[in-house]
């Protein structure tokens, strides 16, 4: 990880705090859990700076670096654009609708070129990562993979990105990924298999787990959506709407709102109510919230539901629901709700957004917008509420039209069974390590 590209800065502006026992400790840049002997718990960040003070000199997501767990910044990162959506609000019957747009739309100065808010988390996770961390391992259903692969390639950070083979179509870029990026695709698999393989690889010497929702860098990066909204509105919104898979973005928004309230002396307003959305055919969080049944604790009664989902990015089989500081806590604290929407409603919402606001949006954002429409119709959201709708991805279709993109071939395609076999995992690790060395030798022989 070349130091001249990622200049080292001080990481002493925050501490890690356990949501279960309250233990406070310094961050080594890779910690994912509290070492104390208690049940599962998320860590949170506690910053030494009291007030919310964006840095006008910093670019992209690092505008909020004083409230990010980073020890370095990466150039050329983007951030969320928050704007009022009066035409869409009028169609919905809302007096005050704000959209947090995460994607590509030059007219709005929206510059997340992978078309997803996952770039926010990638920039912060990489900014937190120490140089001695070794090779980062990331599991993804598609969007996270594209974000990490793009930034790691651009800044020469060693990473293994594990995805279901069906997600490879999302991993296109203007220039091929560099030798630091190795793509491992799991054939005939779903997101859960990618997670299993990534966890097994990360447990081996020389690899470091990115950690998903457990990574404070990921959550605080996603939490900048709420910081950007607060900066634009001058207060917290009444309602926050987002489609979820793991729910990391929703937890992050809630944590950011808590931080803003604590440091503003109550001037920020009440905590936003979380209104979350999932695919109608795959909705484990919805089931848990409304019935108390945890689908992930029993046998899978609908094994094909993942493949029928309109937004496959939202198909996380084991969301961080009951963990201390997790989704259930955030929903209870915010008096939240979880809804579901089907493909027809989501497609209609996507078309309406493009017609009224301009940019194309991704299926998860369509699910979220459809859920907001249903919530207003059912009286779950009041028409006079100030609503922040997180458009978690958009502008991807336009970006593909305006730029010539190249597909990135996987380093390795492995059978689904290999993700769950220790000997196969060791062989995969050896192959990806060898492939990086070979790729760097080739790059060095070609020269600049």
TrEMBL record:
Keywords: Coenzyme M biosynthesis, Pyridoxal phosphate. GO terms for molecular function: transferase activity, transferring alkyl or aryl (other than methyl) groups. Residues 76-393 form the Tryptophan synthase beta chain-like PALP domain. InterPro entries: Cysteate_synthase (IPR022401), TrpB-like_PALP (IPR001926), TrpB-like_PALP_sf (IPR036052). It comes from the Bacteria. GO terms for biological process: alpha-amino acid metabolic process; coenzyme M biosynthetic process. Its cofactor is pyridoxal 5'-phosphate. NCBIfam families: cysteate_syn. This is Cysteate synthase. It comes from Kitasatospora aureofaciens.
